[in-house]
Amino acid sequence: MNPAVASVPLSVVHAHSRQTLLTITSTPNLPSGGLPSTSGAPTSQQFRYEDRRSALIVESDRPLSPTYLSKIFTLPEVAEGVSQDDTSLPTSPTQPSKGLADPPKSRTSSRASQYRKSHRASEFMSLSSPKSSSSSTPPDSPSSQKSPRQRPRILFYHKHDPHYGFTNFSDHPVIYNGKKYPTSEHLFQSFKFHDHRPGLAEHIRTCSTRPSVAFSEARRFQPEVRPDWKQVNIEKMDIAIELKFTQHEDLKEELLATGDAELVEDSDKDAFWGIGADGKGRNELGKALMRLRDKLRRSPAA
Fold first, then answer.
1. What's the CATH architecture for 153-298?
2. Which of 32, 36, 203, 278 is 20 to 30 A from 272, alpha carbon to alpha carbon?
3. Separation CA 291–CA 288 (nearest Å)
4. Which residues are the signal sequence here (predicted)?
5. Mean pLDDT of successive 10-residue stretches along the chain, which has 302 residues
6. Angle in degrees, CA 114, 115, 118, rounded to 5
7. What is the DSSP string of 247-302?
8. d(Cα 302, Cα 291) in Å, to the nearest integer?
């Protein structure tokens, strides 16, 4: 061994509580001619650390603490498929040993460089880097942003469920042009015939108190329905439900109490006025009720 080289045994506690004997070899830089400098100027040193058990070698221009070395030597083997871009090693130990300076950087032998690519390297970095008092999540990252408040939905359709009064089949009579209609469904179906077949419109009004019968009778006379019905049906629905909700104060208060919730007619049979079997229908009755709700709120009487 060169006289300028000294070997010092150092005991480091392994991560699994076993001791690993390391050899620290200190080699001062020599001037040309191979003789030590006599100028008295400080000489830079190079520190070489070897783990005899794993045959790992770490070289540094400054001393490394035993704790720091132990963490390096116990890093697991690189896993297949790990990104080759992750080649960083921690630059400072978590708790330096007394009397040993912590290096700002270190370089390793080619054998040790394999360990730097381990997927656990980022874990080691989090241990050796100072903990930040603030959150590590960027303020504008998706996880830090609050998701918008989801709008509540109110479903109505079935007789024994809440808000059945929102349907046209509920037992709430409606007065239109001085005549009483048993339900808003009766009035709505009669609108199909009012202008050109008033006799049929009167038949729909008086055929039965049951809204299902008024519906069936209007379908029976489908050939007599006004030809532009598909262009005016939503407008006629607006008229029918406005009369109903303004003539029944309890229904009006119930509608206003829904806040800004989405109102949905949960009918699996009607994909136009309701949402249909697949839940993707147009929900035109729900939309009409929400329009009416907005109109009532704007009204001074509300």
1. Orthogonal Bundle (1.10)
2. 203
3. 5
4. none
5. 42 39 42 43 63 70 76 56 40 42 42 38 40 49 62 95 97 98 98 97 98 97 97 98 98 97 97 97 98 94 60
6. 110
7. H-HHHHHHHHTTTTPEEEE--SS-TTTS-TTTT-S--HHHHHHHHHHHHHHHSTT-
8. 14
Strand ranges (E), the chain = 6-13, 19-28, 45-51, 56-60, 107-108, 153-156, 174-176, 179-181, 262-265
* Contact yes or no for 256/266 (Cβ under 8 A): no
Exposed e or buried b for every residue in 42-73, given b needs 16+ CB within 10 A?
eeeeebbbbbeeeebbbbbeebbbbbbbbbbb
The confidence score (pLDDT) of residue 70 equals: 74
* pLDDT confidence of residue 76: 55
Say which residue the tokens 């009416």 belong to. 292
Question: Interior CA angle at 287 toward 295 and 279, to 5°?
Answer: 160
H helices of 28-107, in order, are 66-73
Structure tokens at 262: 């989405």
Q: Identify residue 32 by its one-letter amino acid code.
A: S
**Total-model pTM:** 0.53
> CA-to-CA distance for 243 and 187, rounded, in angstroms?
10
Write the CB contacts of 219 (distance below 8 Å, at least 6 apart in sequence): none
The domain locations on the chain are: 6-27+44-128, 153-298
| Residue 222 tokens, joined | 């489908």
- Smallest CA-to-CA distance from 122 within 74, 68, 75, 57 is with 75
DSSP 104: S
113 residue type, one letter: S
The beta strands (E) that lie in 29-81 are given as 45-51, 56-60
